[in-house]
What we know:
Shape: globular
Largest sheet: none
Oligomer: single chain
Distance between the termini: 19 Å
Helix content: 55-70%
Number of helices: 13
Amino acid sequence: RPSTQTSRKTTMPIIQQRSLSIYTLFGAIQSALWFFVLPSLIKPYWAKISDNYTNQQAEVLLWAIGAPYMLLYMLVAALPPYFILRNVEWVQQYKISRDPWPWLSSSKKQSNRDSKNDNDAAAKQRQLFWKQTYKSILLDFFGLFIFIPTLVYIKTIVWPTHVMSFSMEDFPTPSIQSASTLLSMGIIHEFGFYWTHRLMHMYPSLYKYHKVHHEYKQNNVLSAQHFHPIDFLISIALPAILTTEIVRPHGFAQFQFGLWLLTANFDDHLGYAFPWAAVRWFPWSAGTDAHEYHHSVNMGCYGSKLSLWDWVFGTDNVYNEWRKKRWSLVD
């Protein structure tokens, strides 16, 4: 049985992601701020980028936002439920896995859970976790600070005529056109990610690289960038390049969309299915527990931000059955 299938009971009502509630409004407000307010906040600073950097330099700089944004996300969204609010039932009821976090679990608790004396195994599990954490930090640092900027720089050299615009003259403001640009980017990117991710699972020659990401059976936010470089190149970089080459967005639209992608990716691996998540409130969004389920059973749910392509190609059927059972157990 997947470790995410929990029999945990709670005395508090659990609101599911994508179900209509007050949290739906909170998630929609966050998205509205991202779409309507962010352009006004960034526009005064965008002129400095346009004036002081070439388009090639600006594009490399643009993709470097991943590192500081990941640190911000960890401080604001991850550390509170992991540590500060770890004993608050209202928060912890949304934890997806039934297993305790490795950094909080004790040998005694693990022995009770498994109904046998496995103190040595529990100690090894914690040791493995910290070893894995160290590896994740190295992979995150390499990916965000070195690999991504290098790939973008190479891309601007290979396709010098395809460098995106950073001009203030065509700076996108909230409109139907900018909304359609972002929507197109989301659908195209998710299609590319769905198929590259699915291919990584279909062929052993590719899965040997992707299995590095699946070293995590219970996700935490560090697993979001825990990739082998070859896997990152195929399943992360390729869909991103495909999207920008087809849509050809303005640099700010790419920045705006990049924040959405990063937020969804980090939320995918947060380990909590919070109904107020900014990327999970609308009907076609993929649930956080879908990716947690994918990690636990290593199959299905190949999408990330949207459930669209899993629904189209029928790769979420088993997950949907599991989800019904899970929520019937915790309600």
